[in-house]
Amino acid sequence: MKSRPAPSSDGSDQSDRSDAAASARPKVAGIVDGQTISHLRRERGDADERAQAPLSFALIRRLLRFTGPYRRTMIGLFITVALRGIQLPVLAWGVGAIINGPVARGDLGQLFWSVAAFTAFALFTELTFRYRIKWALEIGEAVIHDLRSAMFRHWLGLTMGYFNRQPVGRLISRLTGDAENVRVGVQNVLFVSLVSIGQMLGCAVLMAVEDWRLFLLVLGIAPIIWGLNLYFRKRLSQAYRSQSDSFSRITATMAESVSGIRVTQSFSRERVNADHFRALVEDHARYNYTAARLGGTFLPLLDLNGQLFMALLVVVGGGHVLAAEAPMTLGSMVQFFFLAGLFFSPITILGNMFNEALTAMAGAERVFSILDTAPEWTDPPDAIVPDHLAGHVELRDVGFSYQAGRPVLHGVSFTAAAGQCVAIVGATGSGKSTVAGLIAKFYLPESGAVLIDGHDTRTLSSPWLHAHLGIVPQQNHLFAGTIYENIRIVKPGATREDVRAALAKLDCLETIESIPEGLDAEVGERGSALSLGQRQLICFARAMIADPRILILDEATSAIDPLTEARTQKAMRLLMAGRTSFVLAHRLSTLRHADWVVVMGDGKVVEQGEPGELIAGGGAFAELWGRAVG
Ligand code: ATP
Ligand code: MG
């Protein structure tokens, strides 16, 4: 049973250079088969992305605009490029001139001076080369640095809807693989191509002057080498792409299997997974083999071609040297040999550069498409920045959908007076987290309005609102670093004492300090080194130190033990004291302390009221309550 993914039929099997990074994202189960792979590819969004794009002058102009701030380096670079284009042909010509001149005449004194001049020029050539490389690297690095920062800054300004639609892997590959391809393009393609073309032209002129008949011979051979190059280059780049693509499938599978190892082992899927993995590795080996075979044919062919050509030159050139009338000098023949070599060597390089240019174009296209993505909405220019937030929140007939035509909320209305605690309950998928996102202005309502202290959130300044609003999301997020860093992240100026004070206010300082290394304990990847309860307390402390007027707690669904639950409940109550707070509750114990309960079902408010009233009323909530309390 083979579960190898078929490379796409048009041969344009796409690859993102950054696959390894992109696919490091953990996925649920370690189950790998053809379907999972195609799913993986779909999710990373690379199925519809091309690896190369045609040269576009608009794109090139836009890229060059990024070199604007480095004009002086650019000017230096172009000077070295121009110099490099003529230096090598001149050196080759110099060898012949020395042979034809002082060597032929047997003039030792002049020979010495010519060789000295030649050496000096050679040194100058290498010095130019050094700066050519240095400045090109500097420009490439600077441009890519600016591009990456621009992309990242741009992302931070985009709205939540964008991130819902874009898989993380795809965003990562924009920042890594695509940006990297652009860097190579900026650093190499233009300058190396110009040098190569200059070198070829220089050699062509010198050869034509030296012996135009031999030069015609050279011109006749050039298309053969170019054609050979084109033929193999295309196949080789396809082979390399398949190679890196299959390798990325291996790393993705590896990452997936490791993060899903519990599922794998508990369902005894080790054998199946190992078989799938072996199939992937075999597949990869085959692509390696193809690439090696192509390379192994191409290089010797190129070599053979060069040698045959040299032999031909020796025969024809030798004929000219031996000719009775106007014989060619030996020095000229040597000169010609050097020039011919220099004329041919850039052909392969130019082919390579062309290839890199196309890849860079595709990268640039995607990078710029990010920079061109406008946020779905922005604050109005005259956004209101009140100088005080009391914390009165009202949802008025709010309707909302994540995707057009699939409404998630319908006519949701409720009010939280300043300082009140409102519990929102309801079955999974009923729209609780969505309501939280609307209050936090992560999204704007489609109909109706969310009013904060009487201001429609559409008219309020988002930074101002976010400065006064704290949200502890359902999947609480810890950043890599220590507990201390994770807590003070919302308030960069906070000291160790502030952090300890926040924990003390939540009555959980001891709990956190009893963890080995206490505040300085590393939280591990996404908090993996901590228990769920500990993670939650850290998120609470983070909210505490930010001291928001409005607080939203999206309770995690996962079950925790009664002791942790009691502690969490207490910390929660301490955190909510004195703020308008919304608790998206799964646990009924949370509800006891709420001032108001909103029961949601299918995106609508089913009923709302004070907890006592609702229980007495015998509605949906009373039923829920009755079942839970028994
Ligand atoms: P839970 O109790 O499981 O947390 P919830 O009440 O918080 O559920 P929401 O997360 O608000 O539910 O989801 C409400 C509906 O919106 C669900 O049907 C869900 O599938 C849909 N939904 C949520 N987030 C998105 C999203 N980013 N894109 C599209 N649909 C979404
Ligand atoms: Mg939710």
The appropriate CATH architecture of the largest domain is: Up-down Bundle
Radius of gyration: 35 Å
Approximately how much beta-strand content do the residues carry? 5-15%
Query: Which fold name corresponds to the CATH topology of the largest domain?
Result: ABC transporter transmembrane region fold
The overall average pLDDT, rounded, is 82
Query: What overall form do the CA principal axes indicate?
Result: elongated
Number of domains: 2
Ends apart, CA distance between termini = 53 Å
Tell me the helix content: 55-70%
Q: Ligands in the structure?
A: adenosine-5'-triphosphate, magnesium ion
Major pleated sheet: 6 strands, mixed
Poorly predicted parts? 1-47
Strand order of the largest sheet: 6-7-8-3-9-10
Q: Identify the CATH class of the largest domain.
A: Mainly Alpha
Label the structural class.
alpha/beta
CATH superfamily of the largest domain: ABC transporter type 1, transmembrane domain
- In DSSP terms (H or I, runs of 4 or more residues), the helix count works out at 21
> Total number of β-strand segments?
10
